[in-house]
Every structure is written in C-alpha cells, then in structure tokens.
Amino acid sequence: MGTTATTAATAGSPRRITMTPAARRVLAAAARLFYERGIHAVGVDLIAAEAGVTKKTLYDRFGSKEQIVVEYLADRDERWRAFLAERLDAAGPEPGERVLAVFDATGAWAAELSPKGCSMVNAHAEISDPAHPAHPIIAGQKQWMLALFTRLASDIDPEGADAMARALMLLHEGALVAHGLGIFPDAVAHAREQARALLPQRTRRSGHDLS
C-alpha cells in the first residue's frame, strides 16, 4: 500500500483518497474507460498505460482497483449534484418549475456526459454485491434522487408527496435506461412531459412542450 493520505469514511460512506496530480490522471483515464467499456472489462494495466503512470504508482495512490471504482463513481455523483444544483437555483422557487428543472438537467447531462446511459445504473449491472465498497455510492445516489423528488413534491402536494415522488423517480430512471439503450429519441424529454402531467394544473407553467 502507498502513503497517500486518505479521507476517513463517515457512517455508511466509503473511504476516499486525497488526490495527487498522478491520481487525477489515473482517475480521468479510469473514468473514461469504465464508462466506455465497463468496469470488469478494464484492468489496472490498461488504466496505468492510458494515464501515463506505472502500475506501482497506481497502487501507491489507490491501493486497489476497487478504490479507483469508488473514486470514479463518487466523482460522477458529486459532479452531477453540482450540475443539478445550478439548474435548480436557476429555476427559481416555483415548485413545478423545479421538478421540471430536474428533467431538463438530466437531459442536458445525458446529452453531454452520458451517451451510454446512467453511470450508476451501468455500474450496478456489474456491482450488485452490497459488500463492494462502491455499492453504497450507487444506491446512495438513487436514494438521494428519491429524497430530492420527495422534497420537491412536498412543496406541491404535502399529503401526496411520497406517491408523486415515486412516480417522478420511475419516470426519471426509466428515461435514463431508455436513453442509454437508444430505445427511442428524446427519452428524457418525453419523461419530462409525463412528469408535467403529474403536476397540479396551477403549477404547470413551463413552455418547453414537445413539438
């Protein structure tokens, strides 16, 4: 094992490492390869070669391939939350607009950064064992999304918030899968319109109808 400092794990969260320049190169290479080819299909030799580091440096920085996977998924999750937060802030306080802003953000993220679908969904197809250190990140990201939809739904219909949030979550996640598989064009945009139909009439103010 190497001497790179690690970030202590909090309850229910995986251990994280402190990033050095070499570690960032490894993570950038691993992120691209994992997303494009799959986690199991990519070995540390290929990651090291793509990052321009030795395998010893890779292990000194991360300790294991599992830790690289943890950092890859945690980094994706952090960047997504920041991306979404900007768009929710821009949407303003109106509850219905904020719900639709989630789908708008997802559509933009999917088009720009996730042409092969949700990285968490894709990773879960390969990492279903709760004992894997990356599993809490995968499950936690989806739990966070459901909690977000629940908070947004509570501002619209406090009594029916749970049911609305679950319906929104199903639309959102189904759209991500349909997008990743290329089932039909504009899956997230279609899900957005279905989400808008769930909102009470008084909250429907968006002009982004499908055409």
Please name the defining characteristics of this protein:
single chain; 211 residues; mainly alpha; 2% strand; disordered N terminus
Would you kindly provide a written description of the structure presented here, covering whatever features stand out?
With 211 residues, the protein is mainly α. Helix content is 66%, strand content 2%. It contains 9 helices and 2 strands; from the N terminus they run E-E-H-H-H-H-H-H-H-H-H. A two-stranded antiparallel ribbon has the order 1-2. A hairpin with an 8-residue loop joins strand 1 (6-7) and strand 2 (16-17). The model is unreliable at 1-11 and 206-211 (pLDDT under 50).
What is the CA–CA distance across the termini? 56 Å
By DSSP, the count of extended strands is 2
What is the typical, i.e. mean, pLDDT?
91
Number of helical segments with 4 or more residues? 9
Summarize the model shown:
The protein is mostly helical and 211 residues long. It contains nine helices and two strands, in the order E-E-H-H-H-H-H-H-H-H-H.
Layout of secondary structure:
Blueprint: E1 6-7, E2 16-17, H1 21-37, H2 44-51, H3 55-62, H4 65-91, H5 95-113, H6 119-126, H7 135-154, H8 161-181, H9 187-198
Antiparallel strand pairs: 1-2
Helix pairs in contact: 1-2, 1-4, 4-5, 4-7, 5-9, 6-7, 7-8, 8-9
